[in-house]
Amino acid sequence: MEDFWKDIYTYATSWVKEAGEMIKDSFSKELLIETKSNPNDLVTNMDKDVETFLYEKIQETFPTHRIVGEEGHGTDVTSAEGILWVIDPIDGTMNFVHQQRNFAISIGIFDQGVGKIGLIYDVMHDELYHTIRGNGAYMNDIKLPMLTESPVKEAILSLNATWVTDNHRIDPAVLSPLVKDVRGTRSYGSAALELAYIAAGRLDGYITMRLAPWDFAGGLVLIEEVGGVVTNVYGEELNILEKNSVFAGEKAFHKEVLQTYINKKR
Ligand code: IPD
Ligand code: CA
Ligand code: CA
């Protein structure tokens, strides 16, 4: 393993763990909750504090690296040149506020647009999903095996029911047969965790019509490391600087869904 990436990874994992402690400590303090684009789009002081904490650490240690974060850092980043950190300080803020669990810190680190490091930290379960490209993916110390073939009829698919109600962003003609044919559906309320669960083989696929780069950056690197695929819902490559629809999954499941369900209806 190149020492260069190992060094970055070692810093990143220690900062993510430290940020997790900050989040846990915040439960004994007052949480300030605001809304963003709509009344259900929540942000708290902790989302902002964790992003600032990570931003400052990266800036101090790796001043040439660029950073894009959900809570406002890196709005000037318009290309994927150089080393780019894509950060979601708390993915699943609604779960964080309502449940105090089922949220994660997510970081993807890219080199000229190629994913090199993926970190997703499930703070409350103390589960860190991590990878350095080419060196295997892990959940804490446990190596995640390469994903094994999963036909639609045996698959568990994760999706958020709002996409069928909210302006019908997923064509119900595509979705209903798929939902009927898979073994089961799940929804966890944190895209980062759902992607980590695919990498860990707990889910076979995840479909959503709109995610921001910070929602999928860490998960993309993790899933690719165990042989999975992450594209938009038409099977096209994702742009790491733009909002995309996302279809992540085990390779055979991904192919079957595209061929049998999505492309047939286009
Ligand atoms: C959200 C979560 C959620 C997904 C939304 C995301 P946030 O991220 O990942 O599961 O459905 O599209 O925006 O706002 O909690 O960081
Ligand atoms: Ca998010
Ligand atoms: Ca977030």
In short:
By secondary structure, the protein is α+β, with helices and mostly antiparallel strands. It has helices at 3-26, 45-61, 93-99, 162-165, 172-181, 191-199, 213-225, 251-262, and strands at residues 33-35, 42-44, 66-69, 83-91, 104-111, 114-122, 127-132, 137-139, 142-143, 156-159, 184-186, 205-211, 229-231, 244-249. The structure holds D-MYO-inositol-1-phosphate and calcium ion (2 copies).
Q: Which features characterize this protein?
A:
Inositol_monophosphatase-like; D-Maltodextrin-Binding Protein, domain 2; single chain; binds calcium ion; 7-stranded mixed sheet; 266 residues
* CATH domain class of the largest domain: Alpha Beta
Order of helices and strands: HEEHEEHEEEEEEHHEHEHEEH
CA-atom Rg in angstroms: 18 Å
Please identify which CATH superfamily of the largest domain we are dealing with. Fructose-1,6-Bisphosphatase, subunit A, domain 1
Under CATH, the topology of the largest domain can be stated as Fructose-1,6-Bisphosphatase, Chain A, domain 1
Strand content: 25-35%
Profile the largest sheet: 7 strands, mixed
Task: Please tell me about this protein's structure.
- It catalyses: a myo-inositol phosphate + H2O = myo-inositol + phosphate.
- Keywords: Hydrolase, Magnesium, Metal-binding.
- Its EC number is 3.1.3.25.
- The protein is built from eight helices and 14 strands.
- The longest helix has 24 residues, at 3-26.
- The model has no long low-confidence stretch (mean pLDDT 94).
- The protein is α+β, with helices and mostly antiparallel strands.
- Bound molecules: D-MYO-inositol-1-phosphate and calcium ion (CA) (2 copies).
